[in-house]
Amino acid sequence: QVQLVESGGGPVQPGGSLTLSCAASGSIFRINTMAWYRRAPGKERELVATITLGGNTNYADSVRGRFTISRDNARGTVFLKMNILKPEDTAVYYCYAEVQTTWNPYGRPNDLWGQGTQVTVSS
């Protein structure tokens, strides 16, 4: 069994900062791409940022320059550092990982999702 567990969400004032964490656990052989998505009330899920195994990153235009995605490969963890937060950043944030399991290390990878963590930006 493999899973992702998120932490770090909560309320924050506009202009503030938060860091989200997401740790993978279980029978993992390798974690390929990791990412953060978010879903705001009444909106579709949005890709926020991605990071490859080699550390290449990509960001949505709405967060570029304010958010930073990083990962610790030894710990199977991905982070999202969010600065200069705006009310429109309010959403449930989900982490994602493309995982090769130990029982199928060279087969089709598995898509894993975290449980989601609420970020609320409000004064």
Features:
123 residues
The number of strands is 11
Topology order in helix (H) and strand (E) letters? EEEEEEEEEEE
Estimate the global geometry from the Cα principal axes. Answer: elongated
Question: What integer value in Å does the Rg equal?
Answer: 14 Å
Q: What's the helix count?
A: 0
- Beta-strand percentage? over 45%
Helix content: under 10%
The overall pLDDT, averaged over residues, is 96
Structural class computed from helices and strand pairing: mainly beta
CA distance, first residue to last residue: 41 Å
Low-confidence spans: pLDDT under 50, at least 5 residues?
Answer: none
Report the major sheet.
7 strands, mixed
Could you explain how this protein is built, in words?
The chain is elongated. It has strands spanning 2-7, 10-12, 18-26, 28-39, 46-51, 57-59, 67-72, 77-82, 91-101, 110-113, 117-121. The strands form two sheets. Strands 2, 4, 5, 6, 9, 10 and 11 form a seven-stranded mixed sheet that branches. It has a four-stranded antiparallel sheet with strand order 1-3-8-7, with no helix packed on it. With 123 residues, the chain is mainly beta.
